Amino acid sequence: MDDKSSKDKKQTDQPRAENAKQQQLDHFRIRDTGNPLTTKQNLKVSNDSETLKAGVRGPQLTEDFYFQEKMGHFNREEIPERVVHARGYGAYGEFECYQSMSHVTEAGFLQEAGKKTPTIVRFSTVQGPKGSYDTARDLRCKGVKFYTEEGNYDLTTIAMPVLIIQDPMKFPDVMHAYQNKQDEGIPTATGAHDRFWDFVASNPESIHMVTWIMSDRGVLRSYREMESWSINTYIFMNDQGKGTFVRFCLEAG
């Protein structure tokens, strides 16, 4: 066979090889064309990224049954503490109130300077599953439980002042995107796979937090030097019924 015939044979064989590979991959592809997203009750869902609000900027309405269903599935059926925050360390200690905050709140443990309250703090990673390493670039979290005379007060904080999403409807989605890939389990942290970056590209509000994660704060020197901010802003009420918006910032010791 001359050189020209060999070249022609390679050109004709190439399309057949590609088609064979596509046919092999078709066995694993899922096509959802014509299959709309539905609730468990088979009702069509028109918006899977925003909660139902009263007005453009909220507040969120409790009548948003789809949000309750989506979060309920994530919380109860997926066991999120095994999905996210799977690795952690705990430390017991005391919280001491340095200044009376009675003008802001009626909470007993914040009423007088010098009052001490037993606490336990849990430091954790977010993405890495059980058995992952601690040195990966990741968002860290800090959960604080105050054992007060009036009951336990739980506070959830993260190591950065911004959150990757704006609407809570997207929380299960970003957690699924950030986890290690179920088919291979790699990587065990940092979200270094296409699925996570596809989410970032499709949700521009996430770029702010990704920028923080890519800074020096994404790799902690130690948990002792970890600052954290409460994810939510709270309303504290004083004995006069006056409300004050409060956000916690826990500084490094």
Give a verbal description of the structure:
The chain has 253 residues and is an alpha+beta fold. The protein has a single domain (65-250), classed as Catalase HpII,  Chain A, domain 1 (Beta Barrel). The chain contains 6 helices and 8 strands; from the N terminus they run H-H-H-E-E-E-E-H-H-H-E-E-E-E. The chain has a 6-stranded antiparallel β-sheet with strand order 1-2-3-4-5-8, with no helix packed on it. A hairpin with a 5-residue loop joins strand 6 and strand 7. Helix 4 (171-178) runs antiparallel to helix 5 (194-202). The radius of gyration is 25 Å and the shape is globular. The mean pLDDT is 85.
> Could you give the distance between the termini?
79 Å
**Top CATH class:** Mainly Beta
Taking the sheet with the most strands, its summary is:
6 strands, antiparallel
CATH homologous superfamily, by name?
Catalase core domain
The name of the CATH architecture is Beta Barrel
Strand content: 15-25%
Q: Tell me, what's the shape?
A: globular
Spatially, the strands of the biggest sheet line up as 1-2-3-4-5-8
Average pLDDT across residues?
85
What structural class is derived from the secondary structure elements?
A: alpha+beta
CATH topology: Catalase HpII,  Chain A, domain 1
Helical coverage, percent range = 25-40%
Low-confidence spans: none
Q: Total number of β-strand segments?
A: 8
DSSP summary: helix tally = 6
